[in-house]
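Here is a typical protein record:
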Amino acid sequence: MIDFFIENGKIERKELYIMDINEKSNGVDTVELFISGRLDTTTAPQLESRVRECAKGYKVLVLDLKDVEYISSAGLRIVLMAHKLMAGINGRLAVRNPSEFCTQVFEATGMDSVLSIV
């Protein structure tokens, strides 16, 4: 996403950071997705697509949410979908290092009792 702003009387162009996903696999059955930025209506489809791809080739999916600064209901839906998707293939989802904001949202919604948070 690109935004324009005025600085020192000049119009400047700046790319806005929304969400980034980095992947690490053990090459066997586990994949870790390191998510940073905002997990919301705009970015949730990107994570959904990646989660669905991972479920085709791995039995253990780890979502590292340490650098997620914001999660909306759309983001929560994807995390819950990942949990159900992995359970449906006799796999497992683990949520690792949830940011303080994610932890508060998980606790407020009761998802902390549904998810495996490590």
Remarks:
- The longest helix spans residues 73-88.
- Strands lie at 2-7, 10-15, 19-25, 30-39, 60-71, 92-96.
